[in-house]
Design a protein that fits this description.
By secondary structure, the chain is mostly helical. Helix 6 (196-206) packs across helix 7, helix 12 packs across helix 13 and helix 17 packs across helix 18 (435-447). The radius of gyration is 31 Å and the shape is elongated. It is built from 20 helices and eleven strands. The protein folds into four domains: 6-85 and 245-313, HUPs (Rossmann fold, 3-Layer(aba) Sandwich); 88-242, Rossmann fold; 330-380, Glutamate-tRNA synthetase, class I, anticodon-binding domain 1 (Helicase, Ruva Protein, domain 3, Orthogonal Bundle), CATH 1.10.8.70; 388-474, Arc Repressor Mutant, subunit A (Orthogonal Bundle). It has a three-stranded antiparallel β-sheet with strand order 3-4-7. The mean pLDDT is 94. It starts with 5 loop residues before the first strand and ends with a helix. The protein has helices at 19-34, 53-66, 89-101, 112-124, 140-148, 196-206, 222-231, 262-267, 272-280, 295-301, 316-328, 332-345, 352-362, 370-376, 388-397, 399-410, 417-430, 435-447, 455-462, 464-474; strands at residues 6-9, 38-41, 105-108, 154-157, 165-169, 173-177, 185-188, 211-215, 238-242, 245-246, 312-313.
Amino acid sequence: MNDAVRCRIAPAPSGFLHVGNARTALVNWLFARHNGGTFVLRVEDTDADRVTEEGVQILERSLSWLGLQWDEGPDVGGAYGPYRQTERYDLYREAGARLLAEGHAYHCYCTPQELEERRKEAMARGETPGYDGRCRNLTEAERRAFEAEGRVPALRFAIPEGREVVVHDLIRGEGRFDPDELRDFIILRSDGSPTYLLASGLDDLLMKMTHVIRGEDLWSSTPRQMLIFEGLGEPPPRYAHLPLILGPDRAKLSKRHGAVAVEHFREEGFLPDAMVNYMALLGWSPGEDQEILPRDGLVRRFELTDVSHHPSIFDVDKLTWMNGHYIRQTDDDDLAAMLLPFFAGAGLQVEPEVLRAAVPAIKPRIQKLTEAVALLRYLFVDEVTPNEKAAKLIEKAGREYLREAARRLEAVEDWTDDEITQTLDALAQGAGMSRTKGWQPIRAAVTGTDVSPPLPESLELLGKEQTIARLRAGAGD
């Protein structure tokens, strides 16, 4: 492969970036980067009922967060723009006029109501519904009569009769489409707007795409787009259709399986490198028994021919495990910076140096950045209210135990985790309790929960004054 490779991601942004589209973008990005080629972002925004400007912004923000930067696109330009389909209508109409003039398309005057009635009739007869071609050979008089009724025609592509279409797919292999499976299809609606089949295919042609890597759900559109290329006298790009991503029940991944938006995973504290690593492995194997691969390793090893044609399961538990690995590999300063927005989102005013000091204690214990907020909330509030489990631990230990803990800790001069550990151990031993049982009431009173980073480190971070005050509050003093 050489640097002439050009591939793209071309979503219709309607509010969020589905992980399936993100995986498609990633595969295109990896393929372009592996081959020294060009990765293009094109916005297919002709459907005004679905596509929103906010959706476009979310798309760009999500791709940028994942680190899948495009070389050409709406915001950066390029030699083959514009990169939004609503700015390319003249190109689609010119192509439609050419196909009409050369006999590859014809005007269709059938109304939506008539088409729906025929569809129902075909289904009632047990036939596969599809256009019956009745406008394909209209006489001039018949066309004038329809226009006299005020009918505005759509433009329909004329499928060559008796033609089998063969698609050589880089993932699926060879696919053959029988002539009976293909019916004449609309390429320009009566209002002049293009359909997906024309707009997407023509854009791939005009933008010099060498490869079209997209989801398996678009497989059925491929032979029709190839016929459009043929009608325009141009060779098609090479196609590769990625297998579907399924939920745990092996149904197509959707909202009913839980989160499917990249934005959700970002808000939940997943790291972009973990998301990229995990999504790359959905249907692709680097050829070794290795799952953790840095971004440059993914680029170096990626081969489109190694992508499986079998569906893959989106396993949130495995993604979460992988995210925990990436968190543990993150530099402490960088991790502290990543955590700051999550504390701000929880309404907590954070002292950055305190958060940075707490990072080593929580890094081995969190799998998502959001989990850090619950573990460290006690550091950034003036007082804590014990939750139900913590309240029971305090009640079971008794007020005098907390008072004794406060007295002993107040006597600690060198407020370090080692000194705190010795003091807490002596306290528990004197009360006839194990470390676990003896420490839990202290944790409950100081943090308000039964879960925290290691207790001595937690108290060291909180400081002596606050620790004593919370123990006394817990004892009711």
